[in-house]
Design goal:
Elements: E1 5-9, H1 19-28, E2 35-39, H2 45-51, E3 57-61, H3 78-84, E4 88-91, H4 94-99, H5 104-116, E5 120-125, H6 129-133, H7 137-148, E6 158-162, H8 176-194, E7 202-206, H9 211-218, E8 225-228, H10 235-247
Parallel strand pairs: 1-2, 1-8, 2-3, 3-4, 4-5, 5-6, 6-7, 7-8
Bound molecules: 2-phosphoglycolic acid.
């Protein structure tokens, strides 16, 4: 059985005052039956990693550079994230693919760097609305999965997050059938590539997950949890999503 994962992506939100939200989350979920991950801005990783040391909430980065160190002003390496207390890193989020022109080859290189730094890579893939309307969804996510995921990937060091670009931050969510179709296709693609080991990979759904829709999304076969943006920023919003995943 795969252990489910509720992951929060704070994006460019949060200052030190928000540590209290994570402490409230820790208090509400002292021995969760699912994994819980918060990916704050890099500035908060050391404080949150320290604050959560004795708790069941893991801390992750939102991106990393592919190199270990060097002349890359403003960038942070996977090694540095691990040094700061992170155990995971989101890679290839659609906001970075769109805003920074990150390609699947870039994502592949970053995932390799994450693995080398013993971080779990949360690799994001997902189609745009135009691609969905053109009937290209399975082709697009299949190609992104293949090109973004290195051969070093295992169910331990890699999580796949299916996030339709058009569902992120919009309040729009695919139908449960559409989510199920993509997750099933991703599971088959992983099996074709990694054999029986594919069963160990968690496949998260992401895009406008909130307390009111979490339970029905978590009931879809092959949905092993969620990557949550806006609704992960406060304990009040994220806690019921964790509970829904525990009850799924
Ligand atoms: P959202 O973001 O939950 O705010 O839609 C999800 C994400 O971008 O990971």
């Amino acid at each position: 059985m795969r252990r489910k994962l509720a992951a929060g992506n704070w994006k460019m939100n949060g200052t030190l005052t928000r540590v209290t939200e994570v402490m409230a989350l820790c208090a509400a979920h002292q021995a969760p039956s699912v994994d819980v991950l918060i990916c704050p801005p890099a500035t908060l990783i050391p404080a949150l990693a320290t604050a959560t040391t004795d708790h069941a909430v893991a801390i992750g980065g939102q991106d990393c550079h592919a190199a270990v160190s060097g002349a890359h002003t403003g960038d942070i390496s996977a090694h540095m994230l691990a040094d700061a207390g992170a155990t995971h890193v989101i890679i290839g989020h659609s906001e970075r693919r769109a805003d920074r022109g990150e390609t699947s080859a870039d994502v592949h290189a970053k995932a390799l760097a994450a693995h080398t730094a013993t971080l779990t890579a949360v690799i994001c893939i997902g189609e745009t609305l135009a691609q969905r309307e053109a009937g290209e969804t399975l082709d697009v996510v299949g190609t992104q999965l293949r090109d973004s995921t290195p051969d070093s990937a295992t169910g331990e060091n890699t999580v796949i997050a299916y996030e339709p670009v058009w569902a992120i931050g919009t309040g729009k969510v695919p139908t449960l059938e559409q989510i199920g179709e993509v997750h099933a296709a991703l599971r088959i693609a992983l099996t074709n590539r990694f054999g029986a080991d594919a069963n160990a990979f968690r496949i998260l759904y992401g895009g406008s997950v909130k307390a009111s829709n979490a339970a029905e999304i978590f009931a879809v076969p092959d949905v092993d949890g969620a990557l949550v943006g806006g609704a992960s920023l406060t304990a009040e919003d994220f806690s019921p999503i964790i509970t829904a995943l525990e009850n799924a």
